Amino acid sequence: MRFLHTADWQLGMTRHFLDADAQARFTDARLDAISRLGAVAAEREAEFVVVCGDVFEDNRLAPAVVARSLDRIAAIDRPVYLLPGNHDPLDAASIYTSEVFRRHRPANVIVLESPGVHEVRPGVELLAAPWFSKHPAGDPLTEAVAAAAAPAAGVIRIAVGHGGTLPVGARDQRLIDVDALSARIAAGELRYVALGDRHSVTEVAPGIWYSGAPEVTNFDHKETASGSVLVVDVPDAGPARVERARVGTWRFASREFPLTAERDVDAAVGALAALPDKDRTVVKVGFTGTVGLAAKARLDAEIEALRARFAAVELWERKTDLAVLPGAEELDALDLTGPAADAAQELLGVARSGGERAADASGALALLYRLTRQEVGA
């Protein structure tokens, strides 16, 4: 028996660093990932698709977002099981009970709206644990597994849950008990555990997996191996086999560059410019070190030019500690006189002091340099 395991579609997601044009492309990409997922299901002859929570970003979405999403799911010509998660729980305002969802819900969509066992077909069951609020008192999956009777002989049972997991040997009623799930797998009562919530593909323990998000949601220093769906083969006997299939097309890249000279600026800009698919790439970049005025001015100009090519370029403030300390020849080249020259010397002294205002003084000097060079046409 083969099925697709996916989660955390978070349809309707927005990102504050995307402008209107990039956000529209990002929104379309999340819908396109559903279509590519459907193509994988058809190509690999998967019996069904299970989405382990957070299908939607929120229970309060524009009707068009819901309707367009359901149209994409309808094109997957096999059952698609949706598990409510913490972003889209089955609460009083649930999207799954909304008028727009009921009106546009395709025949192949099954909402796992009750905890317990759901039969897919004779011999195959899903043990589901939907969320009924954003902050349940305990873990729904641990509770559902504990309450379920053992399956009949020869039945393949797949647990479907959402949420964080406990480290092996730890205890916390709010998190999924991996030890308890592993014991059920060892006893043959569960053949596979499909999880959502963690956006990186992760094998927690043998037979217990997070599928990750099918399209990227965070930068690669926090989220790894997202943009995939898992193809899960469950034989009549023996462990499940898991294979990743790529469906995402976006990338959120974080990069750090140490700078000490203008050649380092050229290397950093070259590395950023070499990234592929810029219209689908968001870059968060941090710079450290000490540079002169000319190097800083060049860096600012190049980063501004790159912003027109990428979906977005963000300054990684936590990883940025760049001092601008001009040499005497750089200040002399500006031909400043009178109060302007006095101000530049004062800023230089503050920048070199290393005090609390050093960064502001460095920035002011860099701006002064850039504006002055613009005036002289340099």
From TrEMBL:
The keyword Transport does not apply. Pfam families: Metallophos. Keywords: Exonuclease, Hydrolase, Nuclease. Residues 1-105 form the Calcineurin-like phosphoesterase domain. The keyword Plastid does not apply. One of its GO terms (molecular function) is exonuclease activity. It comes from the Bacteria. InterPro entries: Calcineurin-like_PHP, DNA_Repair-Maintenance_Comp, Metallo-depent_PP-like, Mre11_N, UCP033093_metalloPase. Gene3D superfamilies: 3.60.21.10. Belongs to the SbcD family. This is Nuclease SbcCD subunit D.
